[in-house]
Amino acid sequence: MSSQDASRSFRPSHLVIRGGVLIDETGERHADVRVDGGVIVEVGSSIEVPSAATVIDATGMIVAPGLVDLHAHLREPGGEEAETILTGARGAALGGFTAVVAMPNTSPAVDCPSVVRDVLALAEGAACEIVPAAAMTVDRAGSLLVPMGELAAMGVRVFTDDGNGVQDPSLMRRIMEYATGLSAVTGGAPVVLAQHCETDALSAGGHMNEGEWSTRLGIGGLPAESETLMMRRDIALARRTGAHIHFQHVSTAEGVAIVRAAKEEGLRITAEVTTHHFTLTDAACAEYDPVFKVQPPLRTADDVAAIRAGLADGTIDAIATDHAPHEPHTKEFPFDQASAGMLGLESALAVALSELDLPVADIIGLMSWKPARIAGIGDRHGRPIARDEPANLIVVDPNESWTISGADMASRSQNTPYEGRHVTGRVLHTIVFGEHVVDQGVSSR
Predict the structure, then answer these.
(1) Gap between the Cα atoms of 83 and 413, Å rounded
(2) Phi and psi (nearest 5°) for 93?
(3) Global pTM?
(4) Structural domain of residue 273, as residue ranges?
(5) pLDDT tens per residue across span 217-261
(6) Are residues 78 and 101 both part of a single domain?
């Protein structure tokens, strides 16, 4: 999908953002920004405000490129009781995301061109750009390869069976080999294979991290090796094929070390982590509350420390949400029967700003221009704040404190693990292709 196609459904506003600190990949500076016709038309000091323009007072605030989520479950088609593309996009825009990569584990799965077209049609009117990822195998069943060439020709750049890891190593090798030959239909743009690393034979019967807390609680455990065994396999295959492998929701200290070593070797490996995996541990499950059940599971304090170190040293490329809404009743079952997953779109930036001991610019990079490049949308999201660039921007008050509440979120679901948590840093304005879709924290779509 081109930038022009993506921007078609947005209604550009004429805006002047005054008095903010601009943070993008080029650095930080004080400047005003004028937006018109969907693009940035002027950046400078004391920009004169045209009579038709709306002024956003960003004094004391941060102006940055919009965020990009590499990993969100928007449930539609098939799971509209928990979320729709429009409600998910609304929550994303409120959280500062101007683009969201929608996972293909819907019903039907996004495994053919017709379903991709359906998702794009459903996204008309959404509050941010929805970027469909496609499955790697038909119905995500791990048996038959999807028509990758046809899907790539449509603009799909991310393929994943997320929710399932591809178990068959021979099939995964063929997927990698096929992916590396798609440049003829993508115009040279890379295709990314995003892997949910879970070895089913090791995970069977598990519902939380295997360790001290699973033993105490009498709940079946998911060992760290379930993740890392598949990571090592895929790195060996990537070494042979040259494919770009992106590891989703890395949750273990060993997983971080595996990514670090692969990058030092020069392999085409990228990785994401979620907010919940660098802020929560398996001790949160002590009361058997299914809100803390997630896949992969919350791990140990040592794993959390390793993930934070990986974010700090550049081993980890992106912070993703793995936004996974569920109807309330599915989170009211006993822990071993409840659905796995957590909300994340509206809280991710605030949680990262509040919890990570990193410069603000580094956090924004992990949530904006770095994931934009991985998703293949770096031509229009995460761009420098400069003249003639697409106007996908956010204004963040880094000092505003607020309390996270599932009931207050735009999602149809309420399963946030941060209920009642006080955080600092809030998105007040989101501008998508020039349209002012969030104004003073209120969505207009």
Answers:
(1) 7
(2) -65, -40
(3) 0.97
(4) 66-375
(5) 999 999 999 999 999 999 999 999 999 999 999 999 999 999 999
(6) yes
